[in-house]
Amino acid sequence: MKIFKGQGTSDLGKPWRYEEDGLTVIRGCAWSPPGCHPTGCGIKTYVNDAGELVKVEGDENHPITNGRLCVRCLTIPDYVYNPDRMRYPMKRAREDRGKDKWERISWDEAFDLIAEKVAYYKETYGAESILLMGGTGREGGPMLPAYAHSALGTPNACYTQSGYSCYIPRVAGTTYVLGATYPEMDYAGGLPGRYDDPAFTLPELIVFWGKEPLPSNGDGLFGHAAIDMMRRGAKLMSIDPRVNWVATRADWHLRLRPGTDAALGMAMLNVIISEDLYDHDFVDKWCYGFEELSERVQEYPVDKVAEITWVSPEQIQRAARLLANSKPCAMQWGLAVDMVREALPAGQAIVGLFQITGNVDIPGGNIFPVELIAYSGGWGGELISDEQKAKRIGLANYPLLRLGFQVASNDDLLDTLLTDKPYKMRGSWLQTNNAIACMAADPKRVMEGLLRLEFNVVIDLFMTPTAMAIADVVLPAATYPEKNGLRLGDGLQRGEVINKVTQIGEAKSDAEINLLIGKRLNPAAWPWETVDEMLSSMIASTGMDIDELREKAPVYLPFEYRRYETGRLRADGQPGFNTATGRIELWSTFYNQCGLDPMPYFEEPEPGPGSTPELMEEYPFVLTTGARRWSSFHSEHRQVDRLRRMDPWPYIEIHPDAAAELGFTEGEWVWVENQMGRAKRTIKITPIVDPRVVSCDHGWWLPEKGPENLYDVFDVNINNLVPMKCGKSGFGANYKTSICKLYKVKEGE
């Protein structure tokens, strides 16, 4: 397979490893932990003769990041050498869960114990009685479903958040209507000449919808690319309830009510279609169901939607016209689109704007990234029988899970843990996952369910609230300077190498842990002797092994635009899209077959101002959660002093008028409460939120508060207020659309 753009020797004449000022400099890729979703920033690590990581710098020769690093990468030595790191495998008795009573054991002892338990559960109750809960914070996360199948033998692999409401609804939705996963903003990331490449066209307009990429660089997008293109003349539109950093630099900002994105998208579609601003040629040739969509959007007139969204009719009309008349126009959408009870219709409406205007797979529009490897690792599913696959929790209720997804339903699994229906779960494997402190909605119920299991294994870098609460065995994971690995992630897939430069205790990479236990549990599925051998097998289709990639990285597959015209999106090689009709399905044949509405629609968040007005007297604020911070990523970084000083406490953003009415002052502690539960926050008074809205970040726990208090996680976890309940499709949840009231914390609370 042809590849291009090798960068093994930089334009400064530096190889991937060299000496400078008495230190060894190792160039590579920075991917969590700690950090962000997989941007894969170019990094230079400086190591002394003792093998100690002294400092890090951005790699000025990296073709995407160009030497830029966030504060989380810059403080990686503080994270690596943090005295609270877990350094060795440990175990404790089941009756001591929640107590700091750990016994250090060897890796062999840990693996023997785990292998014994897994074999027993498989033989006695069936492999389906084992649960794997993963996450996306480390590069091993995307491979965990394959690990669940090939090593544990279970069909029950999941992430923790209700309704998979982070990224997967967008991936699922675009797969079903486009036949291609996750169209992303074109920022010339796959072209040798980047922005100056003759194949690239600068977008006239960039739309950030529910996304503020700079703090987290979510979904593989390097957020600074937007700044690069703005400097070259691209205009920016932000659609977000908060006046975030991007919104302050945008030419247009639509400040909508949280959870009303679908309504706004439908109103904008109404304007574009009614005013004949759509791309007739593209729609006629490549879209299916346009007439039906044209009829549906008439249910969403601008004046009606303005009342729903809190965005004025004039703003809606101007935004729709601007989007339609900008060629090319690029869009990057964020997880806010996923975090409503029924996420797929919102994504369908938003993507529809770019489909009917012809901004699909064109230079400077929204492109379909080529894949360097299969995202999920690619092995293991074939080792499970059809009978075993049929036992996956959630298939009966959510038929969409049967197509293209190897995971079980998070929401149904929680019910199974608590009710033993349709069968009793026995053990769990939690990796890249700090469930009760991070993304689990209704975390007390999640903890209750996990505590009912007989044997729990947790893999992490620190003793977290989840590990302390439920683990019987904990295994220490490595940071990225402590391991060899690959960056093969979302978006325009770039092949890069994570290079090991130091070692703390006995910490191992996720890949090494999975390989070693996989060889014990199912050696036929794990034939490799080393991690490098396993990684080389994953990229074998490129014609390279890990050593060659290390020399040449970053590398890309050849990229071209308008692949739908040349048959590159379909297995049969015919022009068109990989759908039943061969077209973009504005009216989804697959949704229709599954008993879902084939077209986008708006569903009022419940509870909320439009669905439960009677509750708004007691809970007058719309609560949106999950706002990103520069100083942290999900539940990481709470132990790093320099980062903690940037954001020492969990806070809630409230408008000055609302704060004055309640008598709140900056920095004082309040309870945030609704019908689900409550959490503590400090007050941050700011005009960036609407007076009817309050906004919180998530992932908070307080390491300084002590292990047997579970680090006060249930005092400060905002997900106490979020229900574990997805929509009828199985995708989406109310993280962004709860309601609440605020009142002062009393002395002693």
What do you see in this structure?
By secondary structure, this protein is an alpha/beta fold. It has three domains: 90-163 and 375-479 and 506-531, 3-Layer(aba) Sandwich (Rossmann fold), CATH 3.40.50.740; 184-367 and 574-593, 3-Layer(aba) Sandwich (Dimethylsulfoxide Reductase, domain 2), CATH 3.40.228.10; 613-744, Barwin-like endoglucanases. It contains 24 helices and 28 strands. The strands form seven sheets. It has a seven-stranded mixed beta sheet with strand order 6-5-18-17-16-7-8. Helix 5 crosses helix 13 (343-356). It is globular and about 70 Å long. The chain starts with 16 loop residues before the first strand and ends in a 5-residue tail after the last strand.
Q: Please state the average pLDDT score.
A: 92
How many beta strands in the DSSP annotation? 28
Compute the gyration radius: what is it? 25 Å
Distance between the termini: 62 Å
CATH A-level architecture of the largest domain: 3-Layer(aba) Sandwich
Major sheet strand order: 6-5-18-17-16-7-8
